Amino acid sequence: GFKCGIVGLPNVGKSTLFNALTKTAAAQAENYPFCTIEPNVGDVAIPEPRLFKLAEIAKSAEVIPSRMQFVDIAGLVKGASQGEGLGNQFLANIREVDAVAYVLRCFEDDDITHVAGRINPLEDFEIVETELMLADLESLEKRLPALEKKAKGQDKDAKATIVLVEKALEVLRDGRPARSVEIDADDRKAWKGLQLLTQKPVLFVANVDEDSAATGNDYSKQVEAKAAEEGAKAVIISARIEAELAQLEDDEQAEYLETLGLEEPGLNRMIRTGYELLHLQTYFTAGPKEARAWTIPIGATAPKAAGVIHTDFEKGFIRAETISFDDYVANNGEAGAKEAGKVRLEGKEYIVQDGDVMHFRFAN
Ligand code: GDP
């Protein structure tokens, strides 16, 4: 599964957000099942209204959304990489995530201490990121001597790795994150293998006061500008409101959202943005037994998509009967789409599109 880590300074709203994520999912157990694997890991369903539409048309007995995990990575403070060093648990947690969400405090509240005594989301971001960059530097510098030794022994992989390590060290020493290095497609796998904390795609989460949930505020504008500069994504959210929303039944929730001027809970946006960040997309299978959403990387071919269901589907792939989501809905399901000539027979080279409703033909 795919994992998104939640990091930030203390008292910025991480736990509030994480708890809201887990509660929302728990409250909507039927639609969006949730389970806590460990105290800090939340397994959430991807909010996907299209899936429920398909299930309605196909009269599916069961609806199975795709999922991703959020990991609450607590325990980061300024100077953490010196002194005690980042805790091992902290490092282990963050190394295994696919993307990192930085929660940044964009709300003022005199009753809630800010560790640095002032509200400044961009400086907070720098503090956290600096700790992660220092941890990356340390881990690379530790690995280098052994790699050099291997490279002297004419180990080709070691030589290639050293090139990547040096690229990473160069930017890190310059105070920039590893994700600012451009990597050729051929080297991506080895690059990922370095397991650097600052190499993962980031999501900026601006946690604003309740009154600014719909509009954002001056602080969140700074965060958005920073995200744009980085080519990253930003989400504006009020953790307090999300916590309240998470307690409400569906109809009460809709009413409250309307009074706030919000179209949907911010958490849905956050989950979806996390999904986009990972360059993932969804295709569907739909029938009387179940309607189900499947997660695949953008650009995946039909056999690869089939392989997510079962490796046999990939190995024995013959073709995929494919209906776009819009055609499926417009023709009221598979039979109607067939009559209208909207079922395409796609082969091995087909690049699956987001929202495709698919039926795989395969040989054993
Ligand atoms: P963490 O240390 O980052 O996990 O922060 P918490 O989630 O524990 O939040 C710290 C305090 O800030 C708590 O008292 C929260 O209720 C409060 N808080 C979190 N989000 C908001 C918000 O959007 N507005 C206000 N006013 N307070 C918030």
From TrEMBL:
Residues 130-157 form a coiled coil. The keyword Metal-binding applies. Its cofactor is Mg(2+). Keywords: ATP-binding, Coiled coil, Magnesium, Metal-binding, Nucleotide-binding. InterPro entries: ATPase_YchF/OLA1, Beta-grasp_dom_sf, G_OBG, GTP-bd, P-loop_NTPase, TGS, TGS-like, TGS-like_dom_sf. Residues 279-362 form the TGS domain. The keyword Lipid metabolism does not apply. ATP binds at residues 11-16. Residues 2-257 form the OBG-type G domain. One of its GO terms (molecular function) is metal ion binding. One of its GO terms (cellular component) is cytoplasm. PROSITE patterns: G_OBG, TGS. Belongs to the TRAFAC class OBG-HflX-like GTPase superfamily. OBG GTPase family. YchF/OLA1 subfamily. ATPase that binds to both the 70S ribosome and the 50S ribosomal subunit in a nucleotide-independent manner. This is Ribosome-binding ATPase YchF. The gene is ychF.
